[in-house]
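Lay summary. Proteins are chains of building blocks that fold into shapes, and those shapes determine what they do. In this project we predict the shape from the chain. Here is one chain we studied, written as its sequence of building blocks.
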Amino acid sequence: MSGDITVSEKAREKLLKLKSEASIGDDCGLRVSVQGGGCSGLSYKLDFDDVQQPGDQVFQVQDLKLFVNLKSYLYLAGTELDFSDGLDGKGFHFINPNASRTCGCGESFSV
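And here is the predicted shape, written in a compact code that computers can read:
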């Protein structure tokens, strides 16, 4: 299994649209992180960020740059970020092979 963090085409398109709508420059990337909280113990967080921090793992997905701090990377290695706009739920979803349990809404997980 690869340790890369990947982004589905649908999620990439949505992220680029959000950047454009918010007039966020091309030099800005997506910060993907994990923080304590949620009903399963850990939750995902997404933010746009234009600064690479020391220790960040950086992934290039076509024209989108991802920043992941080392602590979060330990939980996210091999994860795919996807986007759904169907009847069964709208929003970003994480397909995380490291998660042993996820909550019903998919916004938190445990390992």
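What the prediction tells us: The longest strand covers residues 29-36.
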